[in-house]
Structure formats: C-alpha cells, structure tokens
Design brief:
The complex is a heterotrimer of chains A (about 350), B (about 300) and C (about 300). By secondary structure, chain A is an alpha/beta fold. Helices cover about 35% and strands about 25% of the residues of chain A. The longest helix of chain A is centred in the middle third of the chain and has 18 residues. The N terminus of chain A is likely disordered. With about 300 residues, chain B is mainly alpha-helical. The N terminus of chain B is likely disordered. The relative contact order of chain C is 0.13. Chain C is flat, with a radius of gyration of 24 Å. Classes of the chains: A alpha/beta (about 350), B mainly alpha (about 300), C mainly alpha (about 300). Chains B and C meet through helix 4, helix 5, helix 9 and helix 11 of B and helix 1, helix 5, helix 6, helix 7 and helix 9 of C.
Amino acid sequence: MTTTDTGTRRGKAAAGSEYHAKDGLLLEVEDLYVEFHTADGIARAINGVNFDLYEGQTLAILGESGSGKSVTAQAIMGILDVPPAVIPKGQIRYCGEDLLTMQAEKRRKTRGPEISMVFQDALSSLNPVFPVGWQIAEMFRVHRGMNRSDSLERAIKLMQRVQIPGAKERVKAYPHQFSGGMRQRIMIAMAIALDPAVLIADEPTTALDVTVQAQIMALLQELQEERQMGLILITHDLGVVADVADKIAVMYAGRIVERADVYDLYRQPAHPYTKGLLESIPRLDQKGQQLAAIGGLPPNLMRIPEGCAFNPRCKYAQDVCREDRPALRLVAPGRESACHFAEEVLNG
Amino acid sequence: MTEASTIAVSAEAGQPVGGQADEGRSLASDAWRQLKGNPIFWVSVSLITLFVVMALVPQLFTNVDPGAAVLKEARAEPGADAWFGRDIQGYDIYSRTVYGARASILVGVFSTLATVVIGLVMGVLAGYYGGFLDTLVSRVTDIFFAIPLLLGGILFMSTFPNDQNTPYLVVVGKVVLVLSVFGWPSIARLMRSSVLQVKPNDYVQAARALGASPWRIIRSHVMPNALAPVIVVSTINLGVFITAEATLSFLGIGLTPPAVSWGVAISDALVAVRTYPHILLFPSLFLSLAVLAFIMLGDAVRDAFDPKSR
Amino acid sequence: MYKYILRRLIQMIPVLLGATFIIFVMVYALPGDPTIGLCGERPCPAAFVAEFRDKHGLNDPFLVRYFTYMGNLLHGDLGTNFRDLAVVDELKLRYPTTAKLAGMAIVFETVIGIIAGVLAGIRKGRFIDNLVLVSTLFVISIPIFVIGVTLQYYFGLKYPIFPATVGSDVTYYKLLLPAFVLGSASIAYVARLTRTNLVENLRADYLRTATAKGLTRRRTLSVHALRNSLIPVVTFIGADFGGLLGGAIVTERIFNIQGVGGFLFTGIRNRDPVSVVGTVTVLVLVFLIANLLVDLLYGVLDPRISHD
C-alpha cells in the first residue's frame, strides 16, 4: 500500500489536505434542489434533500430510476451539465465549506483528492484510447505533479491493491481488453488513488454478473474500512447494499422518504414505498406465493403529484395525502419517515 | 481496403443510422416530422425546385435566346437590357445562366440515379450473398474506388472528346457515364455494410428460414435501414457530380461549346476575369447555389434521421 | 502487424492491376492515329507511321501491350512517350513541386480545419459555431476553380499580396495561395467532421469521468475529448487524398505550376497516352499507399482496432 492509514483518516493521511472534518462530519447536504430546464418544461429531479455523511460511514441511497439518487451524486461531485441542470437552492458542505459557492478552481481540486466517484458502466466511463495504467496515473500527474514513471508505479500498486491479476503486465492494456469486473476494479483504483475522504459509488455493480457483484461490493467495503472513507452507495437494488451499508436513505421523486439503520429498515419499514419495495423481493420462505409489486408508475418529474408524491400508488393514501406533503420526521428512535401514516406502516 | 468500409464522399455522412428494420417506419415518420420543422430543408427544397424548373422550362425565366450574340455589346455590365450583362462574345449572361441549369441538373440527377442503382446492386450482392461473390465485388469496388472521380473523368473525356457536331445529349450522356462509372463505389460500400449489419439479426434469419425470397428480405428488412444513409450520401454526391461536370468543362473537356453550361461559362469568363469579373460571377453563383442546395438537403436529411444530432 | 501490412500489400496488387487496366483501356482503346500532329499540318509519311507504330509497339495486340507495360512498371519504367521523353524522368522532375503543394494543403486542412472545428464544437450553438458551420458550407459548395480564380484575382492581382502564378521557380511562399485553394474544401470538411465528433465525444461517459477526476477543462478537452474526435478526421484526410490529386490538376493549371497535375493535363491536351497512363498509374499507387498508411495510423490511434 502506498499511503496506509488506519484510524481516523483526516488526522494522519490527509495531513496535506486543507480540509478538516470536525467531529468526523465530512459531508452535509442541506435542502438541495436540482431542476432540469428542457424544451418540454422543467423537470424537478431533486426537491429538498438533506443528509450527513461521517467518516467511516456507509450511506446507501436507494431508489428507482428517476428518483433523483444519481442526480444527487452528480450534484455532490459537481459533474451535472449546467445547463440544462440548475441548482436553485441548497448547500453541499464538505468539511464545512459549501461546494456550490466555492470558486471553480478550488472545487476542481477537491475532485479526486477529497471526493471521488465510481460510475456504473466502467466500459464507457473509461477512455477507450488510453491504457488503464495511464488513466490511473493521470490522477497523480495532475493533482500531485508526479512524473510519468513514478505515477505509473503508483498505478501498478493501486491495480494490485484492487486485486487485478498481473497488474504489472496489464498496466499498459486498454479498457476493452479487460472483463467487466476487472474494469470496475480499475475504476475503483482510479477513484481511491488520491485517498479521498468521500467515495461515491453510483450503481457500481449494476452492469455486472451476480458473482462479480459480490466481489466488487466486498472490495468497496474493505477499502472503506481500511481508509475510513465516507462511502455513498447509490443503488436500486436492496440486496446489494444490505450487508455493506450502515444507513439507508430511500428516495422517491426527488425526496428522501425514509431513512434508518439498515437492519431496522429491513425488519420493519416505516414508509409504504419502502414496504412495497421489500415485498417485491422474491424470498425463499414465501415460495409459491404471488410476488407483490408496487402498482402504477413512478411520477413524471415535470408533473409531480400534489401532496405526497407517492399517493397515487399508495394503499394507505387518504385525502390528507393528496393535499399535504408529509415532511421527513422522526417516527421512532433512529427512524425517519415522510408519511402521514408512518406509525401505522411501522406497526402494521 | 475492407477495413475502411464506409468512406463516403463526405465522411460525415458515412455512418449508417437507425437501428432495426422494424423501426424503419416510425423512424421515417419521425424523420419527416423533424424535416418539416427544419427551415434549411425548405430553403434547399425551394432552391432545388427552382433549378429543376429552370432546367425543364428555361423559357419561363427568359425570352432571350442564349445563342443570340450581340457582339458590339460584348462585356457589357449588368443593366436593363441584359440583367447580368453580356459575356465576351456578347451573349446575354442571364439567359445563358438560366439555360445552363439544364446541363448541371441533368448530369447531377442522372449520375446520381445511375450510381445509386449500380451501388445498390453491387452492395447487396456483396453483403447478402457473401463468400466468393463478396470478395469479387469488393475487389471490383476497390478498383473503381482507387481511381479518383476527377482523374477518371479527365481520362475518359480526353479519350472520347467532343466536337462542334456532337449532339447535346451525347455530350451530357458521356459525362453522366463517366461520373457513374467512377462514382458508385461509395454507395456500394454503404449498402454492403448496411446489409451486413442487418443480416445476422434474428428476424432476418427467421424470414429466411420461412422461405422469404432474398429480394423480399432485402426490400422489407435491409432497405428501411439502408435508405437514410443512401439518401444522405447520394444527395451530397449529386452536388459533387455537378461540381465535377463543371470542373471538367472548366478544363475544356467536359461539356464544350456550343453546349451551354455553367462550367463552360466559367471557363469562358476566365480570360476576362481581371477586367470584367461580372462575367464570372453569375454562373459561379448559380453553380454554387445549386451545389449548396443539395448539400443542405443532405445535411437536413441526415440530421432528421440521426437522433444523436437532435 | 507485419502480417497485416503484408496482407494489405498483397490485396493492393489486384486493385492496382485492375485500376491500371481500366486506365489502359480508356487511353488506348480509342481509335485514332497517334501520329496526328507529329509532322506539322500534313499527315505523316507512311514510312514514318510504320516505324513509329513499330517503335512504340502499337502493332501488338492490346493485352500484350498491357502486360509488357506492367512488366516494365515493375522495373520502374513508365515508358517513353511519343516525343522520346522517359515519363519517369519527367515525373521525377515534377513530383517535388506537387508533393510540396499537396503537403502544404494537408497542413492547411489539418491545422485550420481542426482549430475551426474545435472552436465550433466547444461553443456549440454559439456565434462561432454558426459562423464555422455556415462558412464551411459555402466553401464546400463553391467549386475549387472558382475559389482559385477568385482568390488569384483578389490576392494575386488586385491586392498583390501573393504571387499570382508560380512558374518554374518554385518557392514555398509562392505555393501558399495555391495550397490554400487546393485544401479549401478539405479544410471545410475537416472542420465540420471535427466539430461533429467533438460534440459527440463531449457527451461521452468518459468525459464525465475526466471531470470527476478533477482534471482542468483544458486538459479534459485537449487530451480526452480531442484525441478521440481526431480518429475519424485522420481517416478522412487519407480518403480525401484522391480528391486532392484531382484538385491538384485544376490548381496547378490556374496558378501555372509545373507539377504532376500540370504534366498530366498537358499530356491530355497533346494526346500523349504514354505520359497520361504513367502519371495516372503513379497517382493511383500513391493514393492506395496513402490509404494503407491511414488504416495503419487508425490502428495506432484507436487501440480497439486490431490489425492482427
């Protein structure tokens, strides 16, 4: 390992960093809104999202496509295309400093050394015409001013760290010459190259085979524990994150509708949407029964329903749900839900 | 040269567009809706209509005989008598420019039709039947592709030169012939790659298994896919052919007097360009506008069929 | 790689044979007496004609003549024309000029074309983009000889910044204007192609990755986006070589350049089939080799293409 750091990360390894996480608090997302201004109208992708991320914590953000989970990740990373994306409101604070109002050059320098990201499709996310080693080494050259051979040495070490067999020989190979799982390992190596405090993984295993999925998740977990990173796992698949995540935030129509520790949420969901998601997972002990699915479709982001966005699909829905939008509130110790009938859901 | 399989006249237009054949219809209607809203499409269509009408019935635009020379007024500047002025032999430039459209449009349209027919047949033969036939046709395509259009044109036209008595249609026919002979490879390569793209699909295999004739498979599965890129490349080629004809005439071996053509007019104007640039201006302007119209049409069609550019 | 080059060279043989055969047919199939004009206004004496035909092998069957010619070609002999000049020597004398002209044109199309295309691509939909799109459209539409004559008139005669004609004493400076004219349409094509590819690549996932890696926008564009966008441009420049050779004939005529194109045109004018066949054969060979080089370069630029 290059910069082995155990214990609290900010104290030791990030000695060169100008950012210091107070009480381990890395990231605060506060009242974030993101809109996409298109020819057909305004799509409201994120509508007031709040969450914190601490050192060594793994937060899973769960949701269907269009729920705003990837947009949240891209907003934090600062890689939304502006326009069409507009951030009318909100703050994303990294170690207390708001990334959204930060000077562009300063923010650029946070990408990689401070906050880093792994994408879903490694084949299209890696540049097809450069060797993978070169692409990893680029991090050291650009951010650390290293020369060619030193940076390539570091790249080989990273490739070894993410368990790519024959790293030394394959450092000059191109992305298309690797398997899907190996490519994702390369993406991960690139993302952790500069020892970031926050790692965002946007559906890191969706494009992979089931067996490979587990390996990649295990690798991410291992790296996270080793470096005490704050890890944000974006996924639509409950099964993938169950073993890895500490906390889960469930998103629907651009809002967090439920947040809890992972085992609490699994055992007893506090929002009808989460409940529906859990019931739609096939289980061995319910063999032969009809699989429950959530009726209806996710809302059109240009016309999000009045009141609770989930009300047209919700079997608990009453008049109040169509008029009054429920806020995310504490419904039991460590349990937050944005539902008027959260208690009933939790106990029923 | 099989690797560079779709190098067309415009490399931009070389990529086949569209996905599956069964998307053909909706793709076409989508494209049409897109085209209707594109002002460039309407500008180019209007220009092309204008030039085609000019080629068919030049009398609509002028009463002046293009062969009537008024020597004493030679090189006259544009004026009320002759709108565009007169050339070095005293011909009315406006009238000759209007009548000159016919040669360019004839050459452009017929060369394009011929290249599309030859290219379609060759491309389908190579792509659909494969094997030895593919090798043979592809090699022949390579051979004709290896001779640049203008070089081939120059060789052919210098071997079979025109003289004063060669009938107009023979002169035009020769130019059409040589441009077709050396112009078809780009279409053939495009067709071949389109066929190869569609052939392995399950629905094509199913149709073959059900005993559909090759012609039917090509018509209903290959054509919808290949049509858009062929239209794009051939409209742009049409402009290229018009330019090639003018270039040959400029070199004195394409159309030759007494035939009236923009290329001939430009060639004639060169001797006087220093003192009377207007003689060069008008035929050049019309020629460029005609070429521009076809290129814009090709661009508009490509944009309509290529969802990525929207 | 070497296997691939060898295979491609072998594939080139039938293409070259076929192409030269077509050229041969087109030039020699014509009926007519090649001695016309050799003896002034009057027809040549019968004895002269007989000797002439014998000397140039005109009495042999067509195929025999073709294969004799191809055999000689292998030794680098392109024949002796009816004025007793060896075509090879004539070409040797003239090809440096045309090579300079074409080389400068390619430099123009690469440099100006790519810069214009990049400027348009990174400012998509803005003023500069529209300017590039519209101006290139016009350049493509105007035939090369009109551009040539017009620029010659304005910059060679009316405002004599450049020499209007080149003549026998060839310098790079004199070739600037002709090379620009020769490359003009290709500049426009390269600009449009660069723009299209750049716009497409700017939306690619790996560009998002480049931003997420904290690279400067400058590096993202110049290293990650441009490298990929230029691959098709290189192919185009190679495929365009044929057009450039054709255009050289026109350009050399307008600017009175004593190059290969001028030689070819004189050969056509003087009914000199030996010169014409020899020149065109060489041009086709150059074109084929250029295409091969481009395909090899393509493999170097794009690692996904395998030449094994």
